[in-house]
Amino acid sequence: MSPRISIVVPSYNDAPMLERCLSALDAQTRRPDEVVVVDNGSSDSTVDVAIAHGARVVTELRRGIPQATAAGLDAARGEIVARLDADSRPPRGWVAQVVRAFDADPELDVLSGPGEYYDGTPLQRWYAEHMQMAMYYGPVAWFLGHDVVFGSNFAIRQPAWRQLRERVHRNDREVHDDLDITLNLVPGMRVRFDASIRVGVSARPFTSWARMTNGWRMAFYTFGVNHDEESIFARRRAWLAMNAQGEETEGVAWR
Fold it and tell me: By the 8 A CB rule, do 120 and 128 touch?
C-alpha cells in the first residue's frame, strides 16, 4: 500500500497564487491525501481560498517562512509530507512521481527537485534556473557532501522531520528555511535531488536587485548561524565519512 502523502503550502497574502496552486493539486493524477495551508497571518482571502479547495487550515501568527513551514510539517498527518509554496504550480503527475520515488526506495528520507520559472523576464528566468538554482544543486551540494533541499519542491518522511524539527532554526525569520533544513540534515540520511521532479515557481525573487540581494543576504546569514553552532567544514567531513561508510557497506553486500 502506498504511503499517505500530505502537501503543506505556507501562504501570506498570496490568495491569487494560492488559488492556482491548489487548483493544480486538485488536478493531480494521484490526489494528495491531505492538503495543509498554513495561514501566516494573512489579511486577504487566503483562508477562504484554502477552505474552498478542501484544505485544512493551520494558523501560524509568528510571521516568517521558517515558522510557517515548521508549523505545517508538524501538523501534517501523512507518512510523507511534501512542501510547496503558494506560487508553486505542480504538473499533473507531480504527486504520483513523488510517491513512486518513496515507494521505490524505502530508505529514502528526503526528496527534492528544481523549479521551472514561469514569470519575470527571459533574463530573470535564465538567471534563476541556470545560475542560482544550478549553483545550489551543483557546487553547493558538492561542498556540503550531500544533495540539497529546494523549499518550493520537496518531500520528507515523517520520522526524518521529527529528527530535524528541533535542529532547524524554526523561529528565526531571517533564515532561508530550505537551506537551513539542508544544513541540518543528519549525516547518513538518504537525501536525493532529482532533476526530473520539477514544479513551476514564480521568478518574483529575481525581479529586482533589492529582492535578489536580500535573498543572498539571507543565504549568507543562514550559513553563518549554522556555522556558529557547528563548523560547516565539520558537517561536510561527517557527511563524507558517512558516504564512504555507506559505499563500503554496499561493496561488502555486493561481494
Answer: yes
For 166-199, the three-class secondary structure string (H helix, E strand, C coil) is: CCCCCCCCCCCHHHHHHHCCCCCCCEEECCCCCE
pTM for the full predicted model: 0.92
End-to-end CA distance of the chain: 32
Residue 248 is predicted with a pLDDT of 55
| CB distance 255 to 199 below 8 Å | no
Using only C-alpha atoms, the chain has a radius of gyration, in whole angstroms, of 18
Three cell numbers written together for 20: 492556482
Over residues 39-57, the mean pLDDT reads 97
CA distance 231 to 18: 38
Q: Which CATH number is 5-254's, of 3.30.200.20, 2.40.128.590, 3.40.30.10, 3.90.550.10?
A: 3.90.550.10
The span from the CA of 89 to the CA of 118, in Å, is 9
* 113 contacts 196 by C-beta, under 8 angstroms: yes
CB 96 within 8 A of CB 28: yes
Decide: residue 244, CB within 10 A, 0-12 exposed, 13-18 middle, 19+ buried: exposed
Domain residue limits, the chain: 5-254
pLDDT, one tens digit per residue, over 131-145 is 999 999 999 999 999
- Among candidate residues 118, 114, 196, the one with its CA nearest the CA of residue 154: 114
3-class secondary-structure state, position 252: helix
